[in-house]
Specification:
heterotrimer, A: 409 residues, 72% helix, C: alpha+beta, MetI-like fold, 3 domains, two-stranded antiparallel ribbon, 12 helices, 8 strands
């Protein structure tokens, strides 16, 4: 192509060295102008100092005996030790899901499964509970924990097999495992019953949050549809429900669930306080979910529904097949955000006397002289546990959001 | 226009309908079951007839006893190393479970905060409240029935020795930490108001945070029942640096409560408390039960069910309920020693205090004995 | 007869109006029946278990202390007034929290988008840490940290013999002697608010006309503030009222600072926790809002010669506001509701006082009242938010 009479631009010079590499990066991002440079010079030493102070406290004066000597109570609360195999079995089942997700979706799911596997190995191998007198971690518990690697691999196998690697299998499997888990924990008829009141620790936080979102979602969808409906009675009822549950603090609702609800039900009605707390948490988050979904529905172009109706779809099909799927897709980040909020709110169940991971730790600090000064360590530990879960969830949410291309149309 | 009119009409009709229903419901609740009779009849029948749905039956059907209790006071109710609720109050619950169900482990402990005791008792969901609860007339009227004083207490103040305070009347201008929802909170208010003393109250929902504030020096004074103060003091790093002031500003008879509305259950719990007390008086303990049951002390044998009766059948209890309870739990003195005695590190001394048995006095009518006394078993 | 003709062809049970009516009546009846069932159960349970339910206690003496109040409170005041005091405490926490959390949130959100890598990462870490940990844990943590301050007995922290910081009384600082503010002064303030509003409009017009930045809101606030101060000074001079600053000083056996104004560590921990937690959410909302404004807008504004701050103020932020306001309002609601966690760390907010009240008054009534108050706050915030939202949305579309 190049002939003598075509003009050829001179090859461009490489950028100066001060514009590329780490020097260039630093010039652009740390010393862009005098203000930015000043900020960098001031903040970097401050940050280094703060980080150094924190790290030296964590490995120095901080006393982590409290956490290391009571792993069981932090994980499952006062669940009887002789039945500890039940939650451990449930954990094995959950690992299958992680494995499946890793194989089916790769990417973020694989990274989460990897991190999950590493944490599992650490939990199984680290010598906590051995250094402290009177607390022994039985070998079979470690075996159970390490067994998660096997079920993780099993899940990965299932996820790699095209026969089983279907989203529907995954969802159905998830629901099945959830139900099975609850059955194992309570005790299938024939096994000794362990009342929900004895559940505790991190397990309780997770179960309450998962159950909450599991039931809150369909209720939320119904409420959202009801609020948008043109039937005045239905609409008024939904609005009242949503506004009351959104307008009152959760702890007030929880307290009411213990004070007023037992009076409202017939005597000997078989709903215990834990279930009632779970129901209140579910309704509370259903009200929020409803508002999220309503936002999604409002964001839809009316043309969608009109087109569907023009094609002759009956009203319920327009809603179920055209509007809801799009609306839900648009509000997935908001719903995950709601789930995270719900998980954090499970720390409020101490109001109804349940020993979640935070309250469990506080009971230990209060009842035992040797831990009397370790409240700070406890709060940092609990914060870290919550953070790992919530941060993972928001990480997944961002990935899903990108995958679905929300907001990029 | 027509659309709007229709909307208004619809709303009006719906509202009217709702009002009518509400009115009907209100009538139904005020003027005895007339309208809802058909639906509510079966339930009212089962609830109303005490013989069918007594709490005893309910507990036996359920297979476990539900006790509301506490987890923040060493000695009385806290969580031990292996994750069990233990303490003096928990043992009272276990004693009732042993007596009613024959198994002291057939219990379910509902851990609640102090301020929830009233509402939880009123909800009728728990069978027993064992929560270092002070017997007051208004609580007796609205929470449930107080069964029996199992511990005599009084409110006191704890201060660091370094302040040099020797009397509660010197506490003018002090910051006082207290647990909300307790008689301590109300008595404290009375005390300072009565004596015209300025003070700065800090009230907390949970004793754990309140005590944390005391330890840090944020309040100079911590107030609670003296027993709780002694127990908490023993949990401090240097118990000797703190003193409990000599003034006792209130009367605090502590004991279990049962919900209103079931006299049989009230009597059962009262009887089991009596068994614990009289077993100690008769020298029956967990190791010599069988021996004494076969012995020749008539009163002791009656307690153990090997001679005569003290109303077990009328109450719906086993004849040998005494044996079961004492075998599993020991007598009052054993329960006291196990949770509050010298070996526990709490060491609430019993000798010469109100919590000694009445019979510990040098003679039967001497006023020097303790006040632990119950309705005779016969 | 004509009616039956209209329905010809469609069976009556498939007519949409009949269907919708049936659905409404059935759901209405179901709900009303359920409510009636619950109410009748509650009534009979209260009856059989002697549970008190009445409103007469509101006129009784509360006779229990409330540790820190905005309104003056005596133990001899009534329950009704104690409710008012507690509700004011919650309102104060809510308003202060909302203002500071918004400020901090906007700063952090803007910093996240800053060109400086270090501080934008710091802002991101701030957001990710504080919004992902339960507020309750954070409150306990702040409270334990503040308890670590020296107590009065350990000397406390004293600046110039006027500012005291310790974990007993919290932060005490000089404050004008608490005289009753006269009605005249309030009138003057009202007048200066009116003048301020006029000033805002004038400055706004000037800005539009000349293109010179005139900061209408800043001007308006300045006018109101200046008016208030001048009126106060004039009142002191004319009314011969002595101007007294109350300076805190150690008092009594325990040396707690008396006088001046004190903010307890319980309130501080609550505010710090609420503000940081909420600002992390607000920062994300602000960041999302700013990012939602298309790049072309800011580029165009830059090419018109506006500076960075001007672009942010006149171009990006007003447009971002449309996206920001609705979720912001729900954060304000959350903050108000979350302030009920105060009871865990010993600040006397509405929920905490109500829980204490249940000892000496009917619990059911008390909880109905506080639910009503919280609903009132929520609805007020929603109302203001929605009005403002309508104000800033595109019009005429």
């Amino acid at each position: 192509m190049a002939t003598a009479d075509t003009w050829q631009p001179a090859p461009s010079m490489p950028p100066p060295r001060t514009e590329t590499g780490w020097i260039g990066w630093a010039r652009a991002n740390l010393f862009g102008n005098w203000l930015s440079g000043l900020v960098t010079v001031v903040t970097v030493p401050l940050i280094l100092w703060a980080v150094w102070r924190m790290v030296s406290w964590v490995i120095g004066p901080a006393d982590w005996t409290l956490i290391a000597s009571r792993p069981q109570q932090f994980l499952i609360g006062l669940y009887p030790t002789e039945y500890a195999w039940r939650p451990l079995t449930g954990w094995l089942l959950v690992s299958i899901l992680f494995g499946m997700a890793a194989a089916m979706w790769g990417g973020a799911a694989r990274r989460i499964a990897l991190g999950y596997g590493i944490i599992t190995v650490l939990l199984g191998v680290l010598p906590y509970g051995l250094f402290h007198e009177g607390v022994v971690m039985p070998w079979w518990v470690r075996a159970f924990i390490l067994g998660n690697l096997l079920t993780l691999a099993l899940g990965y196998g299932l996820g790699s097999n095209p026969k089983t690697a279907k989203p529907r299998t995954f969802v159905l499997g998830g629901v099945g495992i959830y139900v099975l888990l609850l059955l194992i924990l309570i005790g299938i008829p024939g096994m000794e019953e362990v009342a929900p009141r004895k559940w505790g620790g991190l397990m309780l936080n997770l179960i309450l949050a998962v159950s909450g979102i599991f039931f809150a979602f369909p209720i939320g969808v119904l409420l959202a549809l009801g609020r948008r409906s043109n039937l005045p009675v239905v609409k008024v009822l939904c609005v009242v429900f949503i506004e009351v549950f959104r307008g009152v603090p959760l702890i007030t609702l929880l307290f009411m669930s213990q004070v007023l609800v037992p009076l409202a039900l017939p005597a000997n009605f078989p709903v215990d306080s834990v279930t009632r707390a779970a129901i209140v948490i579910t309704l509370f988050s259903a009200a929020y979910t409803a508002e999220n979904i309503r936002g999604g529905l409002q964001g839809l172009h009316p043309g969608q529904a009109e087109a569907a109706r023009a094609l002759g779809l009956p009203g319920w099909q327009v809603t179920m097949l055209i509007q809801l799927p799009q609306a839900i897709r648009n509000v997935i980040p908001a719903i995950v955000g709601q789930f995270i909020a719900l998980f954090k709110d499970t720390s409020l169940v101490y109001i109804v006397g349940m020993l979640d991971i935070l309250e469990m730790g506080r009971s230990i600090v209060q009842g035992n002289v040797q831990f009397a000064d370790n409240a700070r360590e406890l709060f940092i530990f609990v914060a870290a546990v919550f953070w790992v879960f919530t941060y993972t969830m928001s990480f997944v949410s961002r990935r899903v959001e990108r995958h679905l291309g929300v907001g990029q149309r | 226009m027509r659309g709007r009119e229709r909307l208004i009409r619809d709303i009006a009709t719906a509202l009217a309908l709702g009002l009518i229903m509400l009115l009907a419901a209100a009538c139904a609740t005020t003027a005895e079951p007339a309208v809802e009779e058909s639906t509510a009849k079966m339930e009212t029948e089962t609830v109303a007839a005490p013989a069918v749905s007594s709490r005893l039956e309910a507990v036996r059907d359920r297979g476990r006893l539900i006790c509301a209790s506490l987890n923040d006071t060493p000695g009385f109710g806290y969580v031990d190393e292996s994750g069990n609720s233990v303490g003096f109050d928990i043992d009272l619950c276990r004693a009732v479970a042993a007596g009613v169900l024959g198994d002291p482990d057939a219990i379910e402990i509902r851990l609640i905060t102090a301020a929830e005791r009233g509402p939880v008792m009123q909800s009728g969901e728990v069978d027993l409240l064992v929560y270092v609860t002070t017997w007051t007339t208004s609580r007796d009227a609205s929470w449930g029935n107080f069964v029996q004083t199992m511990f005599y207490d009084g409110q006191g103040f704890m201060v660091p020795k370094s302040l040099g305070v020797t009397s509660a009347y010197e506490l003018v201008g002090a910051a006082v930490c207290v647990n909300t929802g307790t008689t301590s909170e109300l008595n404290m208010a009375d005390f300072f108001r009565q004596n015209n003393m300025e003070y700065d109250p800090k009230t907390f929902e949970e004793a754990q945070v309140a005590f944390e504030a005391y330890k840090s020096g944020a309040c100079e004074v911590f107030t609670s029942d003296r027993s709780a103060l002694t127990a908490l003091r023993s949990s401090l790093e240097n118990p000797d640096e703190h003193i409990i002031l000599p003034e006792t500003i209130s009367e605090e008879p502590l004991g279990p409560l049962v919900p209103h509305g079931d006299e049989q259950w009230f009597d059962i719990v009262k009887t089991i408390m009596g068994i614990l007390i009289y077993a100690e008086a008769y020298g029956i303990n967990s190791s010599n039960v069988d021996e004494i049951a076969a012995g020749d002390n008539v009163k002791a044998k009656r307690l153990l069910g090997t001679e005569g009766s003290f109303g077990q059948e009328e109450l719906g209890l086993d004849l040998i309920v005494g044996q079961t309870v004492i075998k599993f739990m020991g007598n009052y003195g054993e329960i006291y020693a196990r949770n509050l005695g010298p070996e526990t590190g709490i060491d609430l001394s019993r000798e010469g205090s109100r919590n000694a048995l009445w019979s510990n006095a040098p003679c039967t009518d001497c006023p020097k004995g303790g006040q632990i006394y119950a309705a005779p078993l016969r | 007869m004509r009616l039956s003709l209209t329905y010809q062809g469609i069976p009556i049970w498939r007519h949409s109006r009949v269907l919708s009516w049936t659905a409404q009546i059935v759901s209405g009846i179901l709900v009303v029946a359920a409510v009636a069932f619950f109410i009748s159960n509650i009534a009979s349970a209260m009856d059989s278990r002697d549970i008190p339910f009445n409103w007469t206690f509101l006129n009784r003496e509360y006779s229990t202390p409330i540790s820190e109040t905005l309104l003056p409170y005596e133990e001899s005041d009534t329950f009704a007034y104690a409710f008012l005091v507690a509700a004011t405490n919650t309102l104060m926490v809510s308003v202060v929290g909302v203002i500071l959390a918004t400020t901090l949130g906007i700063i952090v959100g803007a910093v996240q988008l800053s060109g400086n890598w270090v501080i934008s990462k710091v802002a991101t870490v701030f957001v990710e840490v504080f919004r992902n940990v339960p507020l309750l844990v954070q409150l306990f943590f702040w409270y334990i940290l503040l308890l670590g301050l020296p107590s009065v007995q350990q000397g406390g922290i004293v600046l110039f013999d006027a500012v005291y910081l310790n974990n007993n009384a919290g932060l005490s600082f000089p404050w004008p002697e608490g005289q009753q503010l006269p009605g005249v002064w309030l009138l003057c303030v009202a007048a200066s608010i009116a003048v301020g509003l006029v000033a805002r409009v004038l400055l706004d017009r000037r800005e539009t006309r000349t293109g010179q930045p005139s900061y209408p809101w800043l001007g308006a606030i300045g006018v109101v503030f200046a008016g208030a101060v001048v009126a106060w000074i004039v009142w002191i001079v004319i009314g011969n009222a002595p101007f007294v600053m109350s300076v805190p000083h150690p008092e009594g056996r325990f040396g707690h600072p008396e006088g001046g104004y004190s903010i307890s560590i319980e309130l501080t921990a609550l505010l710090v926790g609420l503000i940081i937690y909420t600002s992390a959410f607000i920062a994300e909302i602000v960041r999302g809002g700013l990012q939602s404004v298309s790049r072309g807008q800011s580029e165009a504004s830059r090419s018109l010669g506006l500076g960075t701050m001007q672009t942010l103020r006149f171009v990006t932020f007003p447009q971002a506001l449309r996206v920001i306001v609705p979720p912001l309002i729900s954060q304000y609601l959350n903050l108000t509701k979350n302030s009920s966690l105060a009871l865990a760390i010993g600040y006397a907010d509405l929920t905490s006082v109500a829980k204490t009240m249940t000892q000496t008054a009917p619990a059911v009534t008390i909880f109905l009242i506080i639910m009503g108050i919280y609903l009132l706050y929520s609805l007020t915030y929603s109302l203001i938010g929605n009005l403002y939202n309508r104000h800033i949305q595109f019009t005429g579309g």
